[in-house]
User: What shape does this take?
Amino acid sequence: MDDSSTRPRSSRSTGSARLTDVARVAGVAPMTVSRALNRPELVSETTRLRVQRAVLETGYVPNRVAGALASSRSRLVALLVPTVAHSLFAEVVQTVMGVLAPQGYQVLLGLTGYTPEQEETILETVLSRRPDGIVLTGCRHSTLTRQRLQSASVPLVEIWDMSDDPLDMLVGFSHEAVGRAVAEHLLARGYRRFGLISADDSRARFRVAGFVAGLEDAGEGEYQLREVGTPSSMPWGRDKSAELLDSHSLDAIVCSSDILALGVLAEAQSRDLSVPGQLAIMGFGDSSYAAASFPALSTVRIDGAAIGLRAAEHLLQRMAQPTFERAARTLDVGFEIVDRDTT
Assistant: This one.
């Protein structure tokens, strides 16, 4: 007679090994194994390691679907970013995963691109998986996305932006403030005739708006704007800077990303322009190659690791609460202008 009907509910797994087998090998109670796998923060580090070794020895694979139905917890956190091609977003992803994984959470990564339509589609799929928490890039969403997020009783951290009206928790910085600070910095350096090369996504456009507002507040400086698509590329930076330099007398070009700025640097060098003597160049993001370029690229540093860390910590605190309640909590991590050789 098949004894599967007599197995305890706690023994669910997707392989031949059962939870009771893990408990026997680890020398602990089945409930302790369950806690170590699903709520590791509730057991000691010694116990957690013993259970992990027993899991490896027995080959036990928990049935996460059955466990989620029983506990109303999926142990799944959705992380939605535009791209992982940019090192800053990759840094956020790596940090969030590094914080959540030891606590028993798996991260479902979604790439939203730079369009509200793609964000809507991915969010619909994500919500159907009933995640325990969501980390979402930006705080400017479509009406449908906002409605879905407001209706879902799921802790949410918006990142990489700033708003007076976050949907739940927000960890980021003001793109408009970045633009203003860059304008003030370059004006103080004596630059007055600017070319702006910007991606056409909303956050880059807010930095442009802040830069223009900074010029207007100072009552000096003029600018010419060129936009490119997303994700940005070095060839676009070179092509658009060539357009600007062919038709305007400029003493500085400001870019919405470091990769665009490298394209500008390449074009300047092809024309034998002295940088920064004849043309200053400013990027954004402080990518790993910015300091290694020649001359070293001036840029704006964003601490992606800090954003990922704070977002993950906020989520863990909220997911540990027995009931759901929106926090309306905001953390501005700020930014830093890195003045190197190109300005």
Observations:
- The domain at 74-173+305-335 is CATH 3.40.50.2300 (Rossmann fold).
